[in-house]
Amino acid sequence: MASEDPQDVRKYLQQSHDRIFENNKKWAEEQKKKHPEFFEKLSAGQAPEYLWIGCSDSRIPAEAITGLGAGEMFIHRNIANLVCATDLNVMSVINYAVRHLHVKHIIVCGHYGCGGVKAAMTPKDLGLLNPWLRNIRDVYRLHDDELSAITDSAKRYDRLVELNVVEQAKNIIKTAAVQQLYKEKGYPIVHGWVFGFNDGRLKDLEIDFEGQLKDIQRIYDLTSDALEGS
């Protein structure tokens, strides 16, 4: 906003609020015109094939960049697409998507130019963000040798974005829900992707899911429902 006049601010806020409802009305009318049974099908329930765990960045509309429609993707977003075992929000999303929706694919999607990853690379006290960004700094610590060998700071930044996606995918594979359903059904498969603003394309990091699962289960094997004798 160019002006900070209180009256102009209030006017702008009302207009930006109303615009959403105008867009929503137009969208609903267009959907009904194109597909008369669209809302009837939406009301019947959801059976998405995909769980998308992405960054909160407003420039990455998951359905739009993947060509999917309403009801085809279950979505969770947070700063820097993190999957922390202590975050009940993301853990609940994964559990529900796997055990109840029976998604076939789980995607961790990061993006080049991620502000969260950039902040984690900055030696600065960021207050409330410190505990969250520590998870990314831990990724840097785990891959310090590789990252420190990259002399170009921009390339090092991009590589940390990729490594962060890989580590978050591993955190998903560590969950009981994923391990147990995969053992029973052969799905879900966990993927790691990165979105590029420069060309709008998704890059598949080609995570070896079965190989990662086998390696992880040497320590994090949760395929039994409960401890023996309990």
Can you characterise this structure?
Its cofactor is Zn(2+). This is Carbonic anhydrase. InterPro entries: Carbonic_anhydrase, Carbonic_anhydrase_CS, Carbonic_anhydrase_sf. Its EC number is 4.2.1.1. The protein is α/β, with parallel strands linked by helices and 230 residues long. Helix content is 50%, strand content 13%. It has 10 helices and 5 strands; from the N terminus they run H-H-E-H-E-H-E-H-H-H-H-H-E-E-H. The protein has helices at 6-34, 38-43, 62-66, 88-99, 115-120, 130-142, 144-148, 153-173, 176-185, 209-216, and strands at 50-55, 73-78, 105-111, 189-195, 202-204. Strands 2-1-3-4-5 form a 5-stranded mixed beta sheet. The protein starts with 5 loop residues before the first helix and ends in a 14-residue tail after the last helix. The model has no long low-confidence stretch (mean pLDDT 95).
